[in-house]
């Protein structure tokens, strides 16, 4: 059925005004429709851990899309660096990227961290209390110092990740070259859907004296599955044995398991000299 509206000199008083109001309302509804958001780019890395260099590639196959990025973990904006090809990196970095297009809403931001092993010192984990959960023992404590990165899908690399469901995790670290490092780095998984989050606090002790501490930001809902390199700056130390205290985060109010301790998932611990 076809419906037509005619305007003429015979139109009833007020009808012409109502018709134009109708057109304006329809136009306003059209303009109010939200723009479609771009999908985030994919970040592909040759190797998360590297000695000399590694390469990060950003990919999003859509005509007219512009990819922008930062290398220091800072938010990506319209004035950030434009991606023109693979990024060859020789130093540790956190690459953040977003997609832009004039006809679409900017994409969500993605990030990937890479870590240089150039200044890494020998390390072994001699004890962890409590022990990892039976289903997440990985390849044992040596897996935490083998310089092998686990996959974001932790089930795909079951020997790489060790998992704990506890309020407090204590670890003893043996460092033969004591005092030659000034930073402890923990590689940790963040997967809120699986009840896994970085700890709230990490403390480091040398012969009973606290030499380092870091507190992490409270997580927001809707965050992506990702890993974090938690960097704990260290004061001068000399004993050769470090104690690391990891305090689990309580799952936040917005989480289904609110109030319970989040799982702690570790796949690597590094001692390094920050340049």
Word description of this protein:
This protein is mainly beta. The protein has 2 domains: 42-116, Immunoglobulin-like; 120-272, Jelly Rolls. 7% of the residues lie in helices and 36% in strands. The strands form 4 sheets. A 5-stranded mixed sheet has the order 2-8-7-4-5, with no helix packed on it. The termini are far apart. 26% of the residues are buried.
Considering the chains and any ligands shown, give keywords for the structure.
275 residues, mainly beta, Immunoglobulin-like, Jelly Rolls, 2 domains, 5-stranded mixed sheet, 5-stranded antiparallel sheet, 1 helix, 18 strands, 7% helix, globular, disordered N terminus
How are the elements arranged and paired?
Blueprint: H1 15-32, E1 42-45, E2 49-50, E3 54-59, E4 66-70, E5 81-82, E6 87-89, E7 93-100, E8 110-116, E9 120-121, E10 124-129, E11 162-164, E12 168-174, E13 183-190, E14 201-206, E15 209-215, E16 226-233, E17 241-247, E18 264-272
Parallel strand pairs: 2-8
Antiparallel strand pairs: 1-3, 3-6, 4-5, 4-7, 7-8, 9-18, 10-12, 11-18, 12-17, 13-16, 13-18, 14-15, 14-17
